[in-house]
Structures are given as C-alpha cells and as structure tokens.
Specification:
This protein has 207 residues and is α+β, with helices and mostly antiparallel strands. It is 58% helix and 19% strand. Strands 1-2-3-4 form a four-stranded antiparallel sheet.
Length: 207
C-alpha cells in the first residue's frame, strides 16, 4: 500500500513538474509577443516625439533614409516632428516565428506624402522664380536648407490627409534585446509613402 502511494505520489509530482514546465514555456512565448508589441509601441512613441536617438534603440533609423533625407541627422528633426507627429499605429496580430523572431501585422496611418511632394515642388518653383539669378549663386548648403524648409512647410500646408497601410513587421532578438528589422515596405508605410513619392518624382524628372 505504501509503495502504491509512493508511486502515485511520484507520478503526481512528475505530472505537476511537466505542467509547470509547459506552462513556463507558454508564458515565455507569450512574453516574446508582448515584448515585440511593446518594442513597436516604443518606436512609434519615439518617432512621434521626433526623439531619434531613442528610436534608434529599437530600429536602425538609417533604413528610413530616402531622397537625401537622413533622420539620423539633427538637421532633419523639424521635418520628423511634422511627418511623424500624426502617426497612428495598431498591432492587428502577432505570430511567434521561432524563439528569436516575432512577426507583427500592423496598421499604420501616416501623413500622405504624395500631395505634400506636389505642394513642395510647386512652392520650390515659385521660390526659384522669386529668387531669379540669385538662386544659382546659392551654395549647396543654402540650397539644401531651402529645400528642407520648403518640405517642412509643404507638410504643414498639405499634410492633413493620412495614408493607411497594413504591413508585416519582424522583431528579432539581438544580444537578448528585441530589435525591429525594417524593410522598404515598413519604412515606406511609416513615412506615408515618401519612398514611392520620391521615386515617382525622380522618374518624372528623368523623362
């Protein structure tokens, strides 16, 4: 009788241990998804605040570089405030690919840069006409600043419309910390289609 009880006791303990281990795995996996969502949320918050050093902790900000716009540079912080200030993001679903990777499916609403770029070009042409011959005498730095100031103003003028996108975001654990792996589709969505608009503008200039 004692041996039977001892066997049952051992079996119960073993079963309880297995359940605890399995439960621990489930919690750990669920924690990955939660961490991935939190990382995405922290990136969005940093972008909305134009806090690029903080945003860099969660994603390589160089992935947003397009058309000479470099958000890792202090000079582009005013533009970042205008572009990302209205950013709206929502995690629609999560998928744990493996122990080191989580895929998020997200909805992103960002300032639609297509009409902004049209306004920007129109304003630049008007400015060039006003400056006349003096425009050709401006240094590269002055021309770059003029173009940047014009783009900021164009976002203020024509940035009311939001572009909605649904994209996948991959979050990978690097040295024990979650890091968002940006690709062109995700970067383009964050910037309201700026990459598409820039490429379209470049193509039209080359025709």
């Amino acid at each position: 009788m004692k041996q039977t009880l001892r066997k049952w006791g051992t079996l119960c303990l073993s079963t309880l241990l297995c359940i605890t281990m399995l439960g621990g795995c489930a919690i750990s996996q669920g924690g990955r998804s939660q961490q991935a969502e939190e990382t995405f949320g922290q990136l969005v918050s940093a972008l909305k605040a134009a806090d690029m050093p903080t945003a860099q902790q969660y994603m390589d900000m160089a992935s947003l570089e397009t058309g000479g716009i470099d958000f890792t540079s202090e000079a582009y912080v005013p533009l970042a405030k205008e572009m990302f200030g209205k950013l709206e993001c929502e995690v629609l679903s999560t998928e744990e690919v493996d122990s080191e990777n989580v895929r998020l499916h997200v909805k992103i609403k960002a300032v639609n840069m297509q009409p902004v770029m049209v306004t920007w070009i129109q304003n630049l042409m008007q400015k060039a006409m006003e400056l006349g011959e003096s425009a050709s005498q401006m240094s590269n730095e002055e021309q770059t600043q003029l173009a940047l100031d014009g783009l900021i103003e164009a976002v203020r003028e024509s940035g009311e419309e939001l572009l909605e996108s649904e994209v996948d975001v991959n979050v990978t654990w690097v040295d024990g910390a979650p890091k968002i792996q940006s690709d062109r589709t995700f970067a383009n969505a964050l910037m309201g289609g700026l990459m598409d608009a820039s490429e379209g503008l470049q193509n039209s200039l080359n025709e």
